[in-house]
């Protein structure tokens, strides 16, 4: 059965003017990415060089019990380090040596920069080079920055994956690499769909282990599973790999178009994709239709937060019947977001960057039915009578591909149903 979706708009947002916002930011720390990355890489360890605040953030965000043995920790910068009274590089070498002696299972060690380490100009790239000389080849040592200064929290994953690309082996093999950390259950579903289409071999980045046995080269094609991987895209392109542009796999339409784009690279026609995906596509549509009863005809305003905003707006407007007032995103990477922008009907304000006060003024003037925003804005807006959805929940919840389409739509319909119940009870 041929998959039928609404026709592309006569005029999409691909060439729409973009409102550039350069003001006060409300962002979550980039270290947060460790919370999902440490679960994906079974032989990796993330050592944050930061303050006690960094340690408390990771511990509370990850929900790791005190008797657990997580794959992350914080090397605390004490007052003597911050004041320059101690050699932080020497202290870091000592901490790493003790860590690797206690945890011989570690094969990849990430030195992760933070706001405090960047403020005191602690050179973690130099530290990584020095530690490689000591601990290679048993342990691969890399570094990246998860600092919350002028960044958004999903940039942590982008920085991590971009740091991994240069050390991947060279390869001439014809392979597909799917880039972006996905929950295991979603990744298994994705690999099952690609296998049913006869596409392979398929690799994932990040891989579960350092010795995953694949490389990057001119015959590598890669598809992004997350829209916030601009630096990783650039790093893979420098290695000679070729990007497959596609809408993000959110909802029935996004997933089908993503699979069609990948399949076309391997000579598989769209009709075959439609045949193989007929059953899960139908399940996705039925599940989305239930939530769409609440969402259809409602307006939504998306603050810049996770970089998921553009593909989410495409899903909400085309599959759930919503009307987008403004779609804000921290960075508008057209090589990644172009296919989603082309499917968005012209009309909403497209903004890049953040100026919280100006965006709040536009929000209050529009009074949308639903506002997607960060934690710091949600409670005050709820107090003003505006229904909100926490943007961070969209990153921590499985939302990709067919089987999660209904859950994704439900994340947006529940706040509206809850508000309707509260208003009914108040009467």
Automatic annotation (TrEMBL):
Every Nitrogenase/oxidoreductase component domain range: 29-386
GO MF terms, alphabetically ordered: 4 iron, 4 sulfur cluster binding; ATP binding; metal ion binding; oxidoreductase activity, acting on iron-sulfur proteins as donors; oxidoreductase activity, acting on the CH-CH group of donors, iron-sulfur protein as acceptor
Cofactor annotation remark: Binds 1 [4Fe-4S] cluster per heterodimer. The cluster is bound at the heterodimer interface by residues from both subunits.
Species, as recorded: Roseivivax isoporae LMG 25204
Domain of life: Bacteria
Pathway(s) it belongs to: Porphyrin-containing compound metabolism; bacteriochlorophyll biosynthesis (light-independent)
Name listed for the protein in its UniProt record: Light-independent protochlorophyllide reductase subunit N
The UniProt record lists the keyword Iron-sulfur: yes
Role summary: Component of the dark-operative protochlorophyllide reductase (DPOR) that uses Mg-ATP and reduced ferredoxin to reduce ring D of protochlorophyllide (Pchlide) to form chlorophyllide a (Chlide). This reaction is light-independent. The NB-protein (BchN-BchB) is the catalytic component of the complex.
Record-stated family: Belongs to the BchN/ChlN family.
Principal EC category: oxidoreductase
Biological process, per Gene Ontology: light-independent bacteriochlorophyll biosynthetic process; photosynthesis, dark reaction
The entry's keywords: 4Fe-4S, ATP-binding, Bacteriochlorophyll biosynthesis, Chlorophyll biosynthesis, Iron, Iron-sulfur, Metal-binding, Nucleotide-binding, Oxidoreductase, Photosynthesis
Cofactor(s) the protein requires to work: [4Fe-4S] cluster
Known catalytic reactions: chlorophyllide a + oxidized 2[4Fe-4S]-[ferredoxin] + 2 ADP + 2 phosphate = protochlorophyllide a + reduced 2[4Fe-4S]-[ferredoxin] + 2 ATP + 2 H2O
Self-association and partners: Protochlorophyllide reductase is composed of three subunits; BchL, BchN and BchB. Forms a heterotetramer of two BchB and two BchN subunits.
SUPFAM superfamilies documented for this protein: Helical backbone' metal receptor
């Amino acid at each position: 059965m041929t998959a039928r979706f609404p026709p592309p708009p006569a005029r999409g947002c691909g060439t729409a003017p973009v409102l550039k916002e350069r003001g006060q930011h409300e962002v979550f720390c980039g270290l947060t990415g460790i919370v999902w990355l440490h679960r994906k890489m079974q032989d990796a360890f993330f050592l944050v060089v930061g303050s006690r605040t960094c340690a408390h953030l990771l511990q509370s965000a990850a929900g790791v019990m005190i008797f657990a043995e997580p794959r992350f920790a914080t090397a605390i910068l004490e007052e003597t380090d911050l004041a320059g009274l101690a050699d932080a590089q020497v202290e870091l070498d000592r901490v790493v040596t003790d860590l690797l002696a206690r945890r011989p299972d570690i094969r990849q060690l990430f030195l992760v920069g933070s706001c405090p380490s960047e403020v005191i100009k602690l050179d973690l790239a130099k530290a990584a080079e020095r530690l490689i000389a000591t601990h290679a080849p048993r342990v691969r040592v890399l570094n990246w920055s998860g600092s919350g200064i002028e960044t958004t929290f999903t940039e942590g994953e982008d920085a991590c994956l971009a740091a991994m690309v240069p050390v991947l082996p060279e390869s001439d093999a014809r392979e597909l690499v799917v880039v972006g950390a996905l929950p295991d259950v979603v990744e298994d579903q994705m690999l099952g769909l690609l296998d049913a289409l006869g596409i392979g071999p398929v690799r994932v980045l990040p891989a579960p282990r350092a010795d995953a046995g694949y490389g990057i080269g001119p015959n590598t094609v890669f598809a992004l599973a997350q829209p916030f991987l601009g630096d990783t895209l650039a790093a893979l392109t420098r290695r000679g790999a070729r990007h497959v542009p596609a809408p993000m796999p959110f909802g029935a339409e996004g997933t089908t178009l993503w699979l069609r784009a990948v399949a076309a690279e391997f000579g598989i026609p769209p009709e075959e994709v439609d045949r193989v995906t007929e059953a899960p596509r139908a399940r996705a549509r039925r599940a989305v239709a239930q939530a769409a009863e609440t969402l259809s005809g409602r307006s939504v305003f998306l603050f810049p937060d996770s970089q998921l905003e553009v593909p989410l707006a495409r899903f909400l407007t085309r599959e759930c019947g919503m009307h987008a007032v403004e779609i804000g995103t921290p960075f508008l990477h057209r090589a990644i977001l172009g296919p989603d922008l082309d499917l968005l009907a012209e009309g909403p304000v497209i903004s890049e960057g953040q100026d919280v006060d100006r965006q709040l003024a536009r929000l209050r003037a529009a009074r949308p039915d639903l506002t997607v925003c960060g934690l710091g804005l949600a409670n005050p807006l709820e107090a003003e009578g505006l229904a909100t959805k926490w943007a961070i929940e969209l990153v921590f919840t499985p939302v990709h591909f067919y089987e999660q389409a209904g859950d994704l739509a439900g994340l947006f319909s529940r706040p509206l149903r809850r508000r309707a119940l509260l208003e009914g009870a108040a009467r």
